[in-house]
Every structure is written in C-alpha cells, then in structure tokens.
Hints:
By secondary structure, this protein is mostly helical. It contains eight helices and no strands.
Amino acid sequence: MDQxxxxxxxxxxxxLTFLPPxxxxxxxxxxxxHPEPKLLLLLTFVGGMMSVVLAIVGECLFVQLTxxxxxxxxxxxxxxxxxxxxxxxxxxxxxAKYLVVKLLILRRKxxxxxxxxxxxxxxAALGFAAVENVLFAFPLFxxxxxxxxxxxxxxxLGANLLHALSSAIVGxxxxxAWFSPYRHHFVAIGIIIASLLHASFNYLILxxxxxxxxxxxxxxxxxxxxxxxxxxxxxxxxRRELED
Length: 244
C-alpha cells in the first residue's frame, strides 16, 4: 500500500472517530436560540480535546499518590478500590472539562447569558469525547473495520452522550451561579453531581454483563440525565425570554 493510500485510510478512520461527537454537538447547538460565535465554539472544542491531557495527568497522579509506582509505562490501576477509582476518574474528567471553559470562555463578552454555560460545557465535553474516541477506536479500525465501527457506534450512544450530558449538568449549575452570590458553591455541586453520574455509568458498563438487564440500567441512567438536561435547557431559556 502506497503512502498516499495509507494517509487516506487513516484520515477516514480519524473522520469516523470524530463524527459522533460532532453530530451530538450539532444537535445540542440547535437548542441555543442565540447562536454563539463559531470561532469560540471551535476554540472550546479544541480546548476540550486538550483537556484529555490534563485528565490523564490527573489520573496518573491519583494512581501514583494512592498506589505508588510510575506511570511511564501507562497507568496501572491494579490494587485500586474500584469505587474510589471510578469516582476519582469521573471527578478529574469533569473538572478538566469545566476548567477549559473557565479559562477560555467565562471572561469573554460573548458569554452573555446563562444558557451559554451549558452550550460551552457541552462543546468542551464533546471535544474531550472526540479524543477519547481516537484513543479507544482508532487502533481497532486497523485491526478490524467492523469492530472499529461497532465501538464507535457504541460510544456515540454511550460514552459520548454521557460526556455531553454530565458537562451540561455542570453547565446548568454554572448558569445558576449567574443568579447567586454563592457561585463557587453551585459549581462545586454541579461537578460533584456530574461526577457521581459519570462514575455510576462507568461502573454499570463494567458490571452490565453480569447484571440482569444491565444494559437497561445504563439506558435508564442516560435517559434520566437527558431528561434533566432538557428541562434545564428549557428553564434557562424561559428565564432569558422573561428578561427579554
């Protein structure tokens, strides 16, 4: 196979791993009746991609501090309490996604209405999910195209949606902080709730094969989160319309 063909195949695989988060992003952006600047959305998406590095470093430090050893050869999760591990990973990832929006967006003049908090958090989350897709699915495409497509589809309906929904919940609490002097309290509550839901999802994915109707529980968790996020969007948009 010549180099041009190899580059073309790899580009196709990369496109397939990025497609699910982009589709979710397009869906959620339709909920914003006052569209955000495309450049800021792109910046946030790329920032979300970069936040994966922060998450990996944070997870590595957590494992080192709680279990010793080195992360040079990859993170060794052996010896970790699984509940504690899932909670720590979920918290680190949720905070990393929030941190991107805090550093890149919160002080900009275009961040001018509460619902923007949910939009930008979702955008960062889907950038994060896109890189996760590459890490999980991209190598599989080279081994087995069908398996790569199956994993990408499963992540579209599972992990990618989870990232968007959990960050949307953080975004809602950040938006609530807009109307309260206790801003940091609201953000902390949002990150904790999102982390608990995120950790629950990861745990259910781990045990679902040994749990009667395990897949149903995963679906119900995502459905509950989706309903909550939809209601949150409507509440914030309703507040905006009242102000207008």
